[in-house]
């Protein structure tokens, strides 16, 4: 049964790829930029195009988004040896702006180092198939559940990016996603360490790891804030994940009020957990926050030990710089 289902899935994927290739072949006739009467219903329905255009976008917005997606995909098309020829075929440099299909094919054939007739018969179908595959692959990644981190593959050599703004944008977004997920896993590692050390009864080390976990927690919020500033109000491809959703993937943490998460994100620019803790202690309510965090993660009352790791003794645990008792508010929120 599994073999039959897999065969059916592979057949559907092949059919979809062939349909995308047919639509790309039609787009080649006029090249880029795409006109308002582009059509291409399968291409404009791709998840990458829909995400670029926005929910419920009009056909014109979908066409504009498809134009952007095509340019970005062409800029990083594999195999690299077909990239310049593919760009020329669609009317991008090295082709001349405004060139007709014959002129674009000549430029593409020259870029591929092939005779024009051979290029049209042999190389052009390869380019369209490779482009369809790349579009299909990127759409699958876009539609993937947001809880899946970006895939990693072995590098076979130093990658040289083309001097193309779309290639730069694509890599910049991948870089932002990677930093975001790196922050998720860094927090998860510290939370696992706290669980292990607490179970072993080593409360001193568990408390130190809890402090580092708080630093990683703040760093994840800072990365999420940076990602949202660059790519919109939601996180990751599903356009629905919030920062606390990512934190939940790392493991259980007490839910903090927004003011505390903002404080931690600001302090997380520190280059070490020690400097981060100094910043947290110095902030209004910071000592109470740390006390409640340590207690929540380790299950041990830390009311009398919060300042110990950074040597701060001038501010009693549970009080802010103005002497006000802040422990109750923070601890109540964490419950």
Please give the largest β-sheet: none
Oligomer: single chain
**Mean pLDDT reading:** 82
Instruction: Encode the helix/strand succession as letters.
Output: HHHHHHHHHHHHHH
Show unreliable segments.
306-335
Overall structural class, as computed from helix and strand content, comes to mainly alpha
**Distance from first to last alpha carbon:** 49 Å
Helix content: 55-70%
Q: Could you give the count of β-strands?
A: 0
Radius of gyration: 27 Å
What's the overall geometry?
elongated
How much of the sequence is in beta strands?
under 5%
Query: How many helices in DSSP terms?
Result: 14
Describe it for me?
The chain is mostly helical and 335 residues long. The chain has 14 helices and no strands. It has helices spanning 2-28, 41-44, 47-53, 59-75, 83-89, 101-112, 116-143, 165-200, 203-231, 243-250, 258-267, 273-282, 286-298, 327-334. The longest helix has 36 residues, at 165-200. The model is unreliable at 306-335 (pLDDT under 50).
Can you summarize this structure?
With about 325 residues, the chain is mainly alpha-helical.
Supply the key terms.
single chain, 335 residues, mainly alpha, 14 helices, 64% helix, disordered C terminus
Strand and helix layout:
Elements (H helix, E strand, L loop, with lengths): L1 H27 L12 H4 L2 H7 L5 H17 L7 H7 L11 H12 L3 H28 L21 H36 L2 H29 L11 H8 L7 H10 L5 H10 L3 H13 L28 H8 L1
Helix pairs in contact: 1-7, 3-4, 3-7, 4-8, 5-6, 6-7, 8-9, 8-10, 9-11, 9-12, 9-13, 12-13, 13-14
């Amino acid at each position: 049964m599994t073999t039959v289902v897999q065969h059916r899935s592979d057949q559907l994927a092949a059919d979809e790829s062939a349909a995308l290739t047919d639509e790309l072949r039609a787009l080649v006739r006029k090249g880029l930029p795409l006109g308002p009467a582009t059509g291409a219903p399968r291409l404009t329905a791709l998840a990458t195009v829909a995400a670029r255009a926005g929910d419920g976008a009009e056909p014109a917005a979908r066409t504009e988004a498809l134009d952007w997606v095509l340019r970005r995909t062409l800029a990083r098309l594999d195999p690299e040896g077909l990239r310049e020829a593919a760009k020329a075929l669609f009317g991008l440099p090295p082709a001349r702006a405004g060139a007709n299909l014959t002129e674009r094919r000549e430029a593409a054939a020259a870029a591929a180092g092939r005779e024009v007739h051979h290029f049209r018969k042999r190389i052009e179908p390869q380019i369209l198939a490779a482009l369809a595959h790349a579009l299909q692959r990127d759409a699958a990644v876009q539609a993937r559940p947001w809880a899946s981190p970006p895939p990693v593959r072995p590098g076979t050599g130093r990658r040289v990016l083309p001097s193309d703004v779309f290639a730069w944008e694509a890599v910049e977004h991948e870089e932002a996603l990677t930093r975001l997920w790196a922050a998720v896993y860094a927090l998860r590692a510290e939370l696992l360490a706290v669980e292990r050390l607490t179970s072993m009864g080593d409360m001193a080390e568990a408390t130190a790891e809890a402090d580092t976990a708080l630093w990683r927690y703040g760093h994840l919020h800072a990365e999420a804030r940076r990602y949202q500033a660059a790519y919109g109000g939601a996180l990751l491809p599903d356009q629905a994940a919030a920062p606390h959703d990512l934190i939940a993937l790392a493991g259980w943490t007490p839910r903090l009020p927004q003011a505390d998460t903002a404080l931690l994100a600001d302090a997380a620019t520190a280059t070490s957990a020690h400097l981060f803790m100094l910043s947290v202690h110095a902030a209004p309510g910071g000592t109470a926050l740390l006390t409640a965090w340590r207690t929540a993660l380790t299950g041990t009352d830390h009311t009398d030990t919060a300042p110990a790791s950074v040597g701060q003794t001038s501010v009693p645990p549970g009080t802010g710089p103005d002497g006000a008792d802040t422990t109750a508010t923070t601890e109540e929120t964490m419950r």
